[in-house]
Design a protein that fits this description.
Layout lengths: L17 H5 L4 E2 L6 E2 L7 E5 H6 L15 E6 L4 E6 L15 E5 L2 E2 L13 E8 L13 E7 L7 E9 L3 E11 L4 E12 L4 E2 L23 E12 L5 E14 L5 E9 L5 E6 L8 E2 L5 E2 L24 H6 L1 E2 L9 E15 L4 E19 L9 E21 L2 E22 L13 E23 L4 E24 L11 E29 L2 E12 L2 E2 L15 E2 L2 E14 H4 L1 E21 L2 E23 L2 E20 L2 E5 L7 E15 L2 E12 L2 E2 L9 E2 L2 E12 L4 E8 L7 E7 L5 E6 L4 E10 L1
Parallel strand pairs: 6-9, 13-20
Antiparallel strand pairs: 1-2, 3-8, 4-5, 6-7, 8-9, 10-11, 10-44, 11-12, 12-14, 14-15, 15-21, 16-17, 16-43, 18-19, 21-22, 22-23, 23-24, 24-25, 25-26, 26-27, 27-28, 28-31, 29-30, 31-32, 32-33, 33-34, 34-35, 34-36, 36-37, 37-40, 38-39, 40-41, 41-44, 42-43
Amino acid sequence: MAIALSGSALLTTTTATAQDGLLEEIIVTAQKREQSIQDVGITITAFSGAQIKELGFEDSFDIARMTPGVHISGNNGGQKTLFTIRGVTQNDFNDQTEAPVAVYVDESYVAFGQGQVFGLFDLDRVEILKGPQGTLFGRNATGGLVHYVSRRPTREAEGFADFTYGSYNQIRFEGAVGGPLSDTVSGRMSVLYSYYDEVLDNDYPERFVTLDGNPLEYGGEDTFNDDTLGLRGQLLFEPNDDVDVLLIGSFARTREGTSPFLELPTVPIFDAAGNHVGTIVAGPNETREAIAPDGTPIDHPLSFDADLLRPPGGNLYGPSCTPQDYEDLECGMDFAFEDLNSTDTWGVQGKLTWQLSDSTTLTAISDYKSFEKFQGLPADGGPASTINVLFEAEADTFTQEVRLNGEFDRTRWVAGAYYLNIDLETGVSITADPQDLFLPLAGVPWEDTALTQLETDSWSLFGQLEYDLSDSLTLIGGLRLIRENKDFVGEETFFLSTDPLTLETHTPLFSPQPQRAHTQNKNLWSGKLQLDWQPTDNLLVFAGINRGVKAGGFNAPFTFGAGFPPENIPYNEEILLAYEAGFKWDGLFGGTTRLNGSAYYYDYEDYQGFFFSQITGWVQNVDAEYHGVEVELFSSPTPNLSLMFNFSWIDAEIYDVQIGPGIFVDSEPSFTPEIQLAGLIRYDWPQTVFGGQVYAQASFNYADEFWDNIRNFDASLMPDYFIGNLRLGWSSADDHWDVAAFVNNINDERYFTIGYDLSNATGANSLVPGKPRWFGINVRYNYF
């Protein structure tokens, strides 16, 4: 599908009708060259920079809520958020795992999962490509990709300042200035500052539970906040009409409190062999620690007692969040600190574009990025002092792409080479301090730490050819050949804990997983074969098969001292055969309407499913089949009225999911609502008001219920949600000023985006809440 909207679609002025803007052509680079979005036989959604502003998208993952078939997954209390496209996802919290939905910024791959979370500012557009995209894009894009494109320096002086003040003392400033620096050089500087106070109230120590009966002397801060700064500088050199060189430097830093959680008391189900085979939500009067499949109370292995009882409606050890706490967005969390979590990113990029002839262009892109992060969160999200989790990672990535684009007679082609290097060091630790209820595991304050090093080198050659079989029929074929080398070193060690906020690597106690080295050297390939048929100027029909591949990897779990089978540390590449047919139809009902749609069938071999149990997780290869349909409709039935509606449906099944030795079930993928809906209606008053134009806009998005765990235990079913948004604004006739008031989540829906089943560790599930109702006012000034 394609949202073929330009910025004016949501910024209609007194000199342009809503109908003109809604159906205006938008240019994308989904096939490594500029094309109208309606001429590309790929299912694409695109948002312009103006639409990003008008729809209230502030973070990189906000685009998911208005994009059919796209949802979010993630971990770390929601502070590491990833995309799910058509049920293709990967929510492993270990940072050495790459996502199957690739994210690009200005044609450069973001290899580090945490690097996919950033504030949006000064963008030209964002493109969301669905289905395998490995032929032309260099990395792991079995599910699809998301490409953010910055606004480029211009030969005309221009700039803007955009200020928002909103709920929770939100202050958001976005600005840019650019223009010519000489006859051949242009520049642009962009900045973002985003801040809001804590959303989640913490009432600790009202319901505290510790080993010695005294509340902790630290922690207990409110959570769910933001403090982000982003900078981008660009220089564009144009020595002649044939050559240009673009240099980009960027920096971003985020400081946040401890990851936000709300705790849902749950009861694990164990079979006679002690396998965790299910989880149910604990009712307000629930007192069983754990149950057998027939409901009989049994001992929880981590209760450290034999009474088989928990406090009524609480977690395994004491009181917990209540339904009223969910409504009020408050709970008690012991491990909660202000500005504990941090991410820092910087990068440099150079892009050469050289018009070798009228029909051939050379493009070379070099990119280097550096990432650092530290995150800490409570395992349970409640007031009992159980265990906490710390994440620390550093990653350096370098990519180099060289490609040629050309055309002759009835043929268009692109060919190139790509190289990727990732140098990654990570540490993940679960900790127990002197007052921790889990102290009996080792007898002293301890940290169970998994340390990993991963070096990745990937080389590939790629090409795609489009040949016009006739004036209306085009054959497209593409191929990418990949050489993938990975060197991995991992270990798990219990250390003596001396600081609850530090990931310990000194004073080892014992090592359940001694250091082991693993290597993967693989030859991989992806390919594409498709037919595009254009029977009329305003209708494109396409059908094809796409083979996507995502390289294998390595598990690095912490195991509570139980160890992990060495043969399960490596896992294989996943292979997706995607069959898809679709259409893009313009000019309906007198040129007022556009309708796009597609249907697909996915045949998965060795899907890299993420399994989570007790307090750890790992990736395991399984097979799967997906079926789905997506539809998007855009219409301007009158010159001042704009309508948009999209719909997606998916039926997905993963086969032979193991929930215990010899116990296999079929399940649904995590973070994949069966039905998603989104829509928008906008009216621009034709009458002039204070020398400008008034507009009103309403939008909504709906997501069906979905699982947060591939095991599909009952308590892991996240409820559906509906979110509505309103915006009322005024734009000056000269387009210099825009003033708007907005309400997001106007119905104040309580919903959850991410969850983890910790019933086998703490007798509760952890849930990450979405943002509540949010009021604000936005003022923008454009200079040109």
